[in-house]
TrEMBL record:
SMART domains, per database record: AAA
Gene Ontology MF terms: ATP binding; ATP hydrolysis activity
Lineage: Bacteria, Pseudomonadati, Caldisericota/Cryosericota group, Candidatus Cryosericota, Candidatus Cryosericia
Domain ABC transporter per the UniProt entry, residue ranges: 8-277
Location within or outside the cell: Cell inner membrane
The UniProt record lists the keyword Cell membrane: yes
Keywords: ATP-binding, Cell membrane, Membrane, Nucleotide-binding, Transport
Protein name as catalogued: ABC transporter ATP-binding protein
Cross-referenced Pfam families: ABC_tran (PF00005), oligo_HPY (PF08352)
Length: 356
């Protein structure tokens, strides 16, 4: 990819939780690139490591028991305005490693350069502060505006996300908003400091289906207007399909597949992705297809299986799958998959191109 267009590169990130029962390998050697002005979807079942990856990027992993034990999170140094912390040479020239920033410098990154939209706005918003106070706090704390300017900007942001009578609603408390309206407030808050990157962690999960569609539509409109990149995390492939340019499929703390959104839907290259697609309804399907759940459960991350982490649930599993971990191989332009069925000597299975 064009390196001048790179906003963030998560490079071999490893995050573990040290519990009394043992070490939980929540994120294992994760590498991910986020271009400027893009929407990247991260999909996977609960416990796949998608949220832990993003909490690691924000350095919000509770410690103990969590610990980031390897890797880097490179972010565009020019956007951060930290020229003295930029890499001078090499593949990360011009980038700043967020994991090596002092705590006070990292606080300036959160909210200002990376905004976050959480799953449940009722839990994320402070119930005893007005929406106006919560909306303006971040802008004032980052020195972007005076109280008066922040108030005006917050009113504009509420109007932008479709809150009627925004000036009056600034004086209301979170419980006076509906669930969908609270999520609109969370989006307005995340965007209020014009961050280069917004991380939306299951932003529609706590909402009913019609409100979900409105929120996704709103995020698409705002993306076009405000030019932030977005990472959207979801367990639902169909939600990501409607908004993302690129999709990353995670399982047991690893990337199993990564591709342009059209490529992934047209030519999925991993049995797990194929399983996810068969388990959600497709609006473009010509016939009514039966939905098929993926049998079994995700592995216990305290003692993950040797070899391919998906092998216990995979109908194509071969002997090698239970002995060795498959590498992530390139199976098309910008398309990578972690499956031995792409190996030239593997049995021919429709949909799996041979590489290498
Ligand atoms: Fe299935 Fe083997 Fe591919 Fe893993 S590597 S997904 S077990 S075929």
């Amino acid at each position: 990819m064009d390196e001048t267009n790179l906003l963030m590169r998560v490079d071999r990130l490893t995050t573990n939780f040290h519990t009394y029962a043992g070490v939980v390998h929540a994120v294992d050697d994760m590498t991910l690139t986020i271009p400027k002005d893009s929407v990247v979807g991260i999909v996977g079942e609960s416990g796949s490591g998608k949220s832990v990856t993003m909490m690691s990027v924000m350095r919000l992993i509770p410690s103990p028991p969590g610990r980031i034990e390897g890797g880097h999170v490179w972010f565009d140094g020019a956007a951060l305005g930290m020229p003295d912390r930029m890499e001078k040479d090499g593949p990360n020239k011009g980038m700043v490693d967020l994991l090596s920033l002092p705590a006070d410098a990292m606080m300036k990154v959160r909210g200002r350069h990376i905004g976050m939209i959480f799953q449940d706005p009722m839990v994320s918003l402070n119930p005893v502060l007005t929406i106006g106070l919560q909306m303006t706090e971040s802008m004032v704390a980052h020195g972007l505006a005076t109280n008066e300017e922040a108030w005006k900007r917050a009113v504009d942001m509420l109007a932008l996300v479709g809150i009627p009578n925004p000036e009056e609603r600034m004086r209301d408390y979170p419980h006076q908003y509906s669930g969908g309206m609270r999520q609109r407030v969370m989006i307005a808050m995340a965007l209020s400091c014009s961050p280069e990157l917004v991380i939306a962690d299951e932003p529609t999960t706590s909402l009913d289906v019609t409100v979900q569609a409105q929120i996704l539509e709103l995020m698409k409109e705002l993306k076009a207007k405000l030019k932030s990149s977005i990472i959207i995390i979801s367990h639902d492939l169909s939600i990501v399909a409607g908004i993302a340019n690129k999709v990353v499929v995670m399982y047991a703390g690893r990337i199993l597949e990564e591709a342009d959104v059209y490529d992934l839907y047209e030519k999925p290259g991993h049995p797990y992705t194929m399983g996810l697609m068969k388990s959600v309804p497709r609006l473009d399907a010509e016939n009514r297809e039966r939905l098929v759940p993926i049998e079994g459960s995700p592995p216990d991350l305290l003692a993950p299986p040797v070899g391919c982490k998906f092998a216990p649930r995979c109908k194509y599993a071969m002997n090698i799958c239970r002995e060795q971990e498959p590498p992530l191989v390139t199976v098309g332009e910008g398309h990578r998959a972690r499956c031995f069925l792409h190996h030239p000597t593997a049995p021919a299975v429709p949909g799996f191109v041979k590489v290498g």
